[in-house]
Specification:
minor pseudopilin epsh fold; Mn/Fe_SOD_BS; 3-stranded antiparallel sheet; globular; mainly alpha; plastid; binds fe (ii) ion; iron
Length: 305
């Protein structure tokens, strides 16, 4: 991930998602400022997005996902996304940001900036490797299973919906299980206004590099349905690849941990919003009292004259 750099250069532009971090605008303005920063910060840049390996050996998922697939998919495709991203962000104001921040900033409300696709693909692949484990598949337990039953009707109904999403994503892309508790007023969100009904599990699919972070959803599980993910093992039989993923590879432990983290994040956001609301109301009340005191004081002095 991004490492430290010398004092940040303050941009005159403001990012809606990260207003204090000052990055937004068109691809054109990005290039202009990118070139400007290079001359100023060249000597202090140490930023680097890591190229992380899967959390198991490259042959650990055989026979369901071959070592050869990993050698190409992780060793070449994933590596290329990370290498290209590092080339794109070096010397820019993005080089000290986390991968997640780079994705949100460069999504630019759907008007993608140049580093977006490599950043999102780097994140998606890391998330995908960690969505699987040797001896995976089967069925989740505990709260995750309870929420799946609540929001899809049954585990079997969820599996069917997830498989359909993965199979029907036209061309390259991804299918996701997400916890939808979006809070941010982002222009490209399906439902930017939060409500109690939003706190549920949903299945979504996304084209190319897009991931649900840009809709402010919390991803829990994903499957890569780019052809490079399955062609060596399944040729063009995408449905067989999807079935094998669900039956033999999914790490429900990882999905459960992500659900726990997503719920904790949603709760923390609510507490933060409540704190802000209370502070805002307190400030308004203080201002209102000050005005009343001023008016009373003004009235008293008039009477004495
Ligand atoms: Fe991929």
């Amino acid at each position: 991930m991004a490492a430290s750099a010398a004092a940040a250069i303050v941009s005159p532009f403001k990012c809606r998602l990260f207003p204090s971090q000052g990055f937004s605008g068109s691809a054109r303005s990005f290039h202009l400022r990118k070139n400007q920063k290079r001359t100023v910060r060249k000597a202090v840049i140490t930023a680097k997005i890591d190229f992380k390996p899967p959390p198991y050996s490259l042959d650990a998922l055989e026979p369901h996902m071959s070592r050869e697939t990993f050698e190409y998919h992780w060793g070449k495709h994933h590596r290329a996304y990370v290498d290209n991203l590092n080339k794109q962000i070096v010397g820019t104001e993005l080089d000290t940001k986390s991968l997640e921040e780079i994705i949100l900033v460069t999504n630019n409300k759907g008007d993608l900036l140049p580093p977006f696709s490599n950043a999102a693909q780097a994140w998606n692949h890391e998330f995908f490797w960690e969505s699987m484990k040797p001896g995976g598949g089967g069925k989740p337990t505990g709260e995750l299973l309870e929420l799946i039953d609540r929001d899809f009707g049954s585990f079997e109904a969820f599996v069917s919906e997830f498989k359909t999403a993965a199979a029907t994503q036209f061309g390259s892309g991804w299918a996701w299980l997400v916890y939808k508790a979006n809070r941010l007023d982002v222009g490209n969100a399906v439902n930017p206004h939060p409500s109690e009904e939003d706190k549920k599990l949903v299945v979504v699919k996304s084209p190319n590099a897009i991931n649900p972070l840009v809709w402010d959803y919390s991803p829990l599980l994903t499957i890569d349905v780019w052809e490079h993910a399955y062609y060596l093992d399944f040729l063009n039989r995408r449905p067989d690849y999807i079935s094998t993923f669900m039956k033999k590879l999914v790490s429900w432990d990882a999905v459960s941990s992500r659900l726990e983290a997503a719920k904790a994040q949603a709760a923390e956001r609510e507490r933060e919003e409540e704190r802000r609301k209370t502070e805002y109301e307190g400030e308004n009340q203080t201002e209102s009292e000050a005005v009343e005191m001023y008016m009373e004081s003004d009235s008293d002095s008039s009477e004495s004259e």
